[in-house]
Amino acid sequence: MSSPVITRFAPSPTGYLHIGGARTALFNWLYSKHTGGKMLLRIEDTDRERSTEAATAAILEGLTWLGLTWDGDAISQWERAPRHREVAEELVKAGKAYYCYASPEELDAMRELARAEGRPPRYDGRWRDRDPSEAPEGVKPVIRIKAPQTGETVVLDDVQGEVRFPNKDLDDFIILRSDGAPTYMHAVVVDDHDMGVTHIIRGDDHLTNAARQTIIYQAMGWDVPKMSHIPLIHGADGAKLSKRHGALGVEAYRAMGYLPEALCNYLVRLGWSHGDDEIMTIEQMIEWFDTKDINKGASRFDFQKLEAINGHHIRASDPETLTQALIDVLPYIEGGAELQALLNDERRAQLVAAMPGLKDRAKTLVELADGAKFLFVSRPLPLDEKAASLLNEEGCAILKAVLPQLEAAEWTAEALDAVVRAHAESTGLKLGKIAQPLRAALTGRATSPGVFDVLVVLGREEALGRIQDQAV
Description:
Catalyzes the attachment of glutamate to tRNA(Glu) in a two-step reaction: glutamate is first activated by ATP to form Glu-AMP and then transferred to the acceptor end of tRNA(Glu). It comes from Pseudochrobactrum asaccharolyticum. One of its GO terms (molecular function) is tRNA binding. It is an enzyme of class 6 (ligase). There is one protein chain. The chain is mostly helical. The chain has 4 domains: 1-71 and 231-316, Rossmann fold (3-Layer(aba) Sandwich), CATH 3.40.50.620; 80-230, HUPs (Rossmann fold, 3-Layer(aba) Sandwich); 318-376; 385-470, Orthogonal Bundle (Arc Repressor Mutant, subunit A). It is built from 20 helices and 12 strands. The chain has helices at residues 19-34, 53-66, 81-93, 104-116, 184-194, 207-220, 250-255, 260-268, 282-288, 303-316, 319-329, 336-342, 345-359, 365-371, 385-390, 393-408, 413-427, 431-443, 451-458, 460-470, and strands at 6-9, 38-43, 75-76, 97-100, 142-145, 152-157, 161-166, 174-176, 199-203, 226-230, 233-234, 299-300. β9 (199-203), α6 (207-220) and β10 (226-230) form a beta-alpha-beta unit. α16 crosses α18 (431-443). It is elongated. It starts with 5 loop residues before the first strand and ends with a helix. The model has no long low-confidence stretch (mean pLDDT 93).
């Protein structure tokens, strides 16, 4: 029986969870779910100067918001430094690594000579086979791996295929620094092995690292995990994704009003496809996702497409779920705190009732909040410019004329619709000529959900009060 799939997401806590990292986490999570395996989380915090608790918290919060859960506790790479040292010393004892006492000046001279001879700068192996008794006094050595000097190191990759690296280009790289701290290259291998990771899914900027890491695996006699190196995300102009393209933290997308499932839907389509399917649920992503379907080419980030997918997910959400999503995002969006302060059970019920009419007009939760503002305003309503122009002398006269019929009507959308249509017929006015000033009086705006839905959602007393304020 084959062992269960174990993937891992291993961010560095030097900043927020950016969108490329979120996609890597998503791919790892989906593959683990698809195969009935596990996804582990490792915080690669060995860069003590740049790693912060705040960044770690932001990464965990971003993953949680996206719904990307991990198995077990998050592991700190820095706390495992003694284990990394232990493995490096083991490699020295086994003759697979060695102490190197080359001074910074010697290393500079090696680089200069290589440049002068038109070669790439490489360590020349001068301590590879020397006897440790030749070690200079008082110099703390680094530990270097004894990399193979001939032939090739082959990385078998589910996305990139078979990638071959000439060993002459890989040199005897450092695995333990002179202060006893492990290099990233070494710590990753030890951690992945000890955590039982079977599948590594990460950006293709790690492909060269994969060759060096394979050398460490082989030196220890450990199984090399299956690799999938995914192309990076580019901006719309084809350049590597940066802040100006939208390489923001996940929390910025929350504040822009994107639903987590819509963001996951968009991200999974950046570099992976399932036929022509554009819109998919989390359950479908889990069912369909396989590393073999990841594209080799870089994908381009497109805000318009993200917005369209988000709009689709908003329209597909039921009113109760969408209301809760809107309430949850209020602390993060501009002006949301004011709306949150006005929220009570009655307003929440109104939001749920208004949601079918509101959600068809919104592509983001920010737009949804904006559309729902008419529920939160106090009388007399502030009017936007367009609404004020509709409530001119003629508009107010129309309201005054229709008000008695509304006051006498049964308070359902159908009954109110029938009353206003009958009034339009008896006065020879078009329905829109009555609906427009009604909408302006009810919402303070020229656009809103259907005017009869608005009347019902506001309730008889509030709706008639708003109309009376303008029908003077």
